[in-house]
Amino acid sequence: MLTEIAAARDAALAEIDAAPSLDELSALASRLTGKRGRLATLKSGLGALASVEEKKRAGQAVNEALAAVSAALDARRSSLAADALAERVARERLDLTEVTAVPGRGHAHLVTQAWERLEDVFVGLGFRIAEGPEVETDWHNFEALNMGEGHPARGEFDTLFLDHVAPGGAPGSTVLRTHTSPVQIRTMLQQRPPIFIVAPGRVFRRDTPDATHMPVFHQIEGLVVDRDITMADLAGTIEAFTKAFFGAEFTSRLRPSYFPFTEPSAEFDIQRPNGEWIELGGCGMVHPNVLRAGGLDPEEWSGFAFGFGIDRMAKERHGVEDLREMYSDDLRFVRQF
Ligand code: PHE
User: Strand 195-204 to strand 262-271: parallel, antiparallel, or no bridges (unpaired)?
Assistant: First the structure.
């Protein structure tokens, strides 16, 4: 009897080991452990054994054999399942080599690069970054900047108006900001001096695109308000910026000009090492009316502001001939920078 049990167990284990798939294994399992299985048959034949001692030993042997079979079934089941999963993963693997045939990451656009470097340089000079909305009120964009209704300077901005009417606003008083200067007003209304901020951002004008104009472009605004700020601080800051951004061989100058929101006002130019001058932007001492609109007493506070085009600057810096190329999505252009 014991030899028969051992033989039945070994045959079962060999079959389990050889089961080629999960389906076949489960058929095998019901055959081996079911009532009609060889071990079950042997078990029910135990009663015919002569002595109690024999019954006991044979019974224990059958139970051990059944336990061994069921352990072997479990082990085979998990190994077949692991094989099946590995095979499925291999079968469904996506081969992306074609799509990523040109490895490598992209990079920031020329204008973004200039924008980020400007921020770095100004933060290095002690400025904070400020922000304002691209959709502005007439008040922030013009009125508070000393350009009341009917001010001739408004006409120079080629403003894009929105149909949207702000709560409490008159029709036609919502605009796409034409410059970053409204951020001066928003900053003054938000925080007390000392104020040292730059505000880079997108601005809009109703211009037909050509080599030097885009209807959407970028400016960076600077504003300093504190006690006893003078024109010398403005000139010194512009010069420090010029050297930090363009290099020690560059220098700057201010030329008298006019802006409604600064008094006195100037244009600032930078000089290349080869002696050539490039116009960069506008600047001046913050007009008393602008300080008042920002909630500050001009007797107590003074400040300077400046603003210039980021795209224009990137264009000059890299010798790009046509501004439109910067936005053409032509990768051959973009990849050069
Ligand atoms: N906002 C002006 C422009 O867009 C530039 C400027 C900013 C001039 C700040 C003076 C002071 O042309």
Answer: unpaired
If you take atom 3 of ligand 1, which residue's CA is the nearest one? 179
Q: Are 265 and 191 in contact (CB under 8 A)?
A: no
Ligand 1 center to residue 120 CA distance, Å? 21
Task: Judge residue 283's burial from the number of C-beta atoms within 10 Å of its C-beta, 0-12 exposed, 13-18 middle, 19 or more buried.
Answer: buried
Please report, to the nearest 10 degrees, the dihedral formed by the alpha carbons of residues 222, 227, 232, 238 taken in order: -20
84 CA to centre of ligand 1 in angstroms: 69
Ligand 1: which of 181, 195, 224 to mutate, most ligand atoms within 8 Å of CB?
181
Distance between CA atoms of 249 and 52, rounded to whole angstroms?
110
Which helix (H) or strand (E) element contains residue 133? none
pTM score, whole prediction: 0.70
- Tokens standing for residue 124: 């290095």
Q: Outline where 97-137 has alpha helix (H).
A: 110-124
Angle ∠(153,179,126) on CA atoms, nearest 5:
125
Report the atom number in ligand 1 closest to the C-alpha of 184. 9
Length of the chain in terms of residues written: 337
Is residue 284 lining ligand 1, measured as CB closer than 6 Å? Answer: yes
Query: Would you state the pLDDT for residue 237?
Result: 97
> For ligand 1, is residue 307 a contact (CB within 6 Å)?
yes
CA of 19 to the centre of ligand 1 (A): 82
Band of residue 11 on the pLDDT scale cut at 50, 70, 90: confident
In this structure, are residues 58 and 47 in contact, taking their beta carbons and an 8 Å threshold?
no
CA-atom Rg of the chain in angstroms: 41
Token pair in block for residue 72: 């072997």
Structure tokens at 71: 């352990």
CB 195 within 8 A of CB 226: yes
pLDDT category, 65, cuts 50, 70, 90?
Answer: confident
Token code pair at residue 56: 């006991």
Helix, coil or strand: residue 61: helix
Residue 161 per-residue DSSP state: B
Tell which atom from ligand 1 comes closest to the C-alpha of 308: 5
CB of 309 closer than 6 angstroms to any ligand 1 atom: no
Q: Whose CA is nearest to atom 7 of ligand 1?
A: 307
